[in-house]
Amino acid sequence: MKNGNADPHPYVGMWVTRDGYVRQELLPNGRYDEARGNRKSKSAYQGSYALEGDHIEYVDDTGFMADGDFRDGVLYHGGMIFYREKKES
Description:
The protein is mostly beta strands. The chain has strands at about 15, 20-25, 30-35, 45-50, 55-60, 65-70, 75, 80-85. About 0% of the residues lie in helices and about 55% in strands.
């Protein structure tokens, strides 16, 4: 996921399930960090991702591959639905 300029891709950032149990951060360097449960600092999965349009391909650090799609500002991945985390003001 290289876009050749300093602006991060619009999908970069934190995505969370409605209940907040699963949190997936898409980092600007093409890596992701997914945490589950109450401990925000505890990673469940880490790896790389690539974006092509509204489609995302994941490869975790063990080699497991998965994918997902962004539709209308929502991420559908692995049978879960993620919403962009709202920034606290």
